[in-house]
Design goal:
It comes from Streptomyces sp. SID7499. By secondary structure, the protein is α+β, with helices and mostly antiparallel strands. It is built from 2 helices and 6 strands, in the order βββββαβα. Helix content is 20%, strand content 31%. The chain is elongated and about 55 Å long. The chain starts with a strand and ends in a 10-residue tail after the last helix.
Length: 129
């Protein structure tokens, strides 16, 4: 990753900072994960939000994540995790900074963010899944 300055383009030693939200307290619906971008490991943040739906077919919106994988994790959380509220809620899930997470290793972070959002319980702020 590179950064554009007045002096020109410079390489970033640690581009993970572009894909994280800085905060002092843990917030429900967020989880960190590590992914590979080429040969570089990056720490990325997954965010999820669940709200009561006002329509018969709740919305499922994703950004930076594969919609089919998020849908599968919602089904697993509802069936095996016994989080019954998910079927009647609008679900919004995204990555910070526009990074795209396609590898299955990120599924745990997505599932934890979804469960955290559904229960309105923050995960430890330094947890990396």
């Amino acid at each position: 990753c590179f950064e554009l300055h007045d002096e020109g383009i410079t390489g970033l030693a640690d581009p993970s900072g572009l894909f994280l939200t800085r905060r002092d307290v843990a917030v429900p619906g967020t989880c960190l994960t590590v992914t590979l971008e080429g040969k570089r490991p990056l720490v990325a943040e997954v965010q999820a939000l669940t709200v009561d739906s006002q329509i018969p077919s709740p919305r499922r919106t994703t950004s930076g994540l594969e919609t089919s994988r998020v849908s599968m994790m919602l089904a697993v959380l509802e069936q095996r995790g016994r989080i019954s509220a998910l079927g009647k809620r609008d679900i919004y899930s995204a990555t910070v900074g526009g990074v795209k997470l396609t590898e299955p290793a990120a599924d745990l972070a997505v599932a934890l963010a979804l469960a955290s959002a559904a229960s309105d319980t923050p995960l430890p702020k330094n947890l990396v899944a």
